Recover the amino acids of this structure.
DNA sequence: TCTGGGGTCCTAGGACCC
DNA sequence: TCTGGGGTCCTAGGACCC
């Protein structure tokens, strides 16, 4: 019988708004939201400050709607480098208590505190972490404590801001079952509607064995049994710190101030977006094997097209060329409101070195070899391939 | 209500190989 | 002429989350 784990889910409260107030303290007295779009009065609320929430403003809401609810609301533009900075401070702070940390997103962390809990009571530890983050970094957090990642996550959501909530297996019936089904992490608007349509409104109704067959008609068995296990504290996920070491994808997209039409205009935006995307790829010492482009038409139809190549690449010109190839063979003259580019199948450059080593170790006999040079060479070789491929294709 | 930008994961079909 | 089963990879789309 394995030991019961103690997992913390630490969630930064209204994170973007907290960062904005650290940078501009006058905002503490204001009703404000973070979000919107530069160059236009549109866009959506990314994060509503608590004062804005008191006026009924919520994230995801359009700016127009927020202004209707409270005309004097301030709209603060997003500042991702700032969030990244405080996110790093946050994760480094947590690492003082446990090295077993999983990044849930930029503003949430899972921690396995089973070991340290033998020395300090988990509630005391949670309070210490919460107080420390607030005093040292002005960052308010809510902490959920549970035996699994899922239950800890559900717990942290129950009291905000500055909550500490325990959700043990034996509390599930009392604390989770009465909730509306849409509160379950992983059940969004679509699934909620599908379930509501067959008469499932609460968690209690979802877990009722009498409803099993009904639910399996609208949900895959994988999903259904996965949710059941999660709800009942039977999920086996672990806090695996290596899981998010390497991102799965890097992308950049832009909703245009005015919709555009025509290949050349789209290409120009694609090129600009590719610059920052490739910059981030290089900053993280990664190479990519798949290039994707994304277009959204004026009537909100999203088109994604991708192409994978055999050798991972990082070269800007080459990535842009592939993106352009994809654009040329897929764009049919629609009016476009969003252009995006993405890189995936990412590999750390140093792992790539090992991979090549297996096959081309002669290249590395000279200890002075230069990886950048080698990758340039591979890119060059691929370039030839693209050209011949292009001719073959049409 | 007129709908951002960054991600992750899942599904499903088809190609291809053994 | 009819045609298995398993596995992996690629592609497209969609749901979801913050």
């Amino acid at each position: 019988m394995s030991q019961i784990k103690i997992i913390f889910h630490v969630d930064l409260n209204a994170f973007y708004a907290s960062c904005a107030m650290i940078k501009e303290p006058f905002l503490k007295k204001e009703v404000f939201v973070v979000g919107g779009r530069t160059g236009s009065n549109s866009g959506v609320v990314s994060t509503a400050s608590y004062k804005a929430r008191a006026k009924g403003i919520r994230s995801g809401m359009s700016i127009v709607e927020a202004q209707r609810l409270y005309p004097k609301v301030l709209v603060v533009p997003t500042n991702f480098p700032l969030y990244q900075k405080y996110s790093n401070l946050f994760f480094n702070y947590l690492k003082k208590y446990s090295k077993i940390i999983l990044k849930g997103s930029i503003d949430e962390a899972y921690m396995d505190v089973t070991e340290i809990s033998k020395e300090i009571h988990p509630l005391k530890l949670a309070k210490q972490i919460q107080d420390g983050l607030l005093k040292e970094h002005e960052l308010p957090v809510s902490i959920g404590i549970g035996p699994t990642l899922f239950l800890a996550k559900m717990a942290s959501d129950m009291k905000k801001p500055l909550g500490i909530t325990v959700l043990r297996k034996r509390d599930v019936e009392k604390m989770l079952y009465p909730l509306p089904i849409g509160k379950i992490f992983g059940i969004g608007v679509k699934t909620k509607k599908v379930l509501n349509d067959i008469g499932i409104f609460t968690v209690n109704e979802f877990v009722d064995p009498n409803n099993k067959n009904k639910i399996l008609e609208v949900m895959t068995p994988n999903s259904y049994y996965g949710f059941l296990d999660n709800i009942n504290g039977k999920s086996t996920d672990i806090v695996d710190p290596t899981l998010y070491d390497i991102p799965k994808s890097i992308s950049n997209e832009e909703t245009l101030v005015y919709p555009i039409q025509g290949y050349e205009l789209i290409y120009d935006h694609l090129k600009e977006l590719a610059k920052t995307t490739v910059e981030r790829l290089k900053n993280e010492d990664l190479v990519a094997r798949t290039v994707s482009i994304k277009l959204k038409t004026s009537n909100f139809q999203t088109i994604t097209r991708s192409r994978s190549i055999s050798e991972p690449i990082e070269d800007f010109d080459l990535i842009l060329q592939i993106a352009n190839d994809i654009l040329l063979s897929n764009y049919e003259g629609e009016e476009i409101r969003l252009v995006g580019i993405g890189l995936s199948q990412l590999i750390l450059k140093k792992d790539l070195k090992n991979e090549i080593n297996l096959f081309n170790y002669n290249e590395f006999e000279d200890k002075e070899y230069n990886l950048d040079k080698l990758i340039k060479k591979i890119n060059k070789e691929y370039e030839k391939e693209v050209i011949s491929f292009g001719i073959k294709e049409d």
About this structure: Residues 15-16, 46-47, 59, 104-108, 185-191, 290, 292, 302-308 of chain A lie near DNA strand C (CB under 10 Å from a C1'). The longest strand of chain A covers residues 336-348.
